[in-house]
Amino acid sequence: MKQTLLALLLTAALGSAVAAPKSPAKPAAAPLPKKTAQEILAASPASDWRALSPDNTLLMDLASGQVVIELAPRFAPAHVANIRALARGGYWDGLAILRVQDNFVTQWGDADGEDAAKARPLPAGASAQLPAEFSVPIDRIGREAGFAKLPDADGWAPRTGFAEGFPVAADPKTGKAWLAHCYGMVGAGRGDAVDSSNGTELYAVIGHAPRGLDLNITVVGRVIKGIELLSALPRGTAAMGFYDKPEQRTGIQRIRLLADVPAAERPALQVLRTDSATWAQLLDARRFRSGWFVHSAGRIDLCGASVPTRPAP
After folding, report:
1. What is the 8-class DSSP label of residue 194?
2. Domain 37-113+127-311, second-level architecture
3. Diameter of the chain by CA atoms?
4. Where do the structural domains in the chain lie, given as residue ranges?
């Protein structure tokens, strides 16, 4: 009896030993970057930078300075074409910033846009109705836009990365790719109908990335210079951050397409290519911090990696 009991106990012990999960091996620590972000950018070759596209860049002139917006025609071709027509027709000239909601967006357009009797008429070539452009086919981004995938996990999409300087999320199962609502991104405001945006009313994200808006609004571009002129404005006191008095609004002097601005007046800016070796090095420098940092997370998130610009040499 004792021998049988001993045998059973031994068998159970061996079974437990076999069934016990092994402790996962700790991943090897990644080497800390040898260069700072500033040093990486300073050493970057000229081929890793690109000029602004004159047909895809907006200049917004405010009394406080100039905001430069890069448009994304590959992701929202109909909206971008309409925005070009609106800018060339002077649609926004003399209009205003209507809404500044803390930790969310700065929005501009026609304060009387919803009143047919008072709304500013659309210029020639601009359409009042456009299709919703929430996403594009994922294979187009990989094939045509040089999509650089991030290995880091994202809670909002199974795949993220950058294409042509824009933060992109994607889902291979649905075959969709879309622009993410990161800080500085510009979207086209809409009503309840999904196809109610036409680019006349735009907003820039000035707070923590509202990724819940992804796939719900057409994103048309991003601010690449002057976001502080939009994010530092007084917050609106009415619902959703709208200004309840006209005198509270910030006037827009004019919005022009870069292609229509004389060469001598154009901002001389370059944007780092997100398919470049310099960009990959910058991402690693953000993943694996050194110097002042006593802890390095070893990862980044899509909206925590903004694409640099610099004055053109």
Report:
1. T
2. Beta Barrel (2.40)
3. 101
4. 37-113+127-311
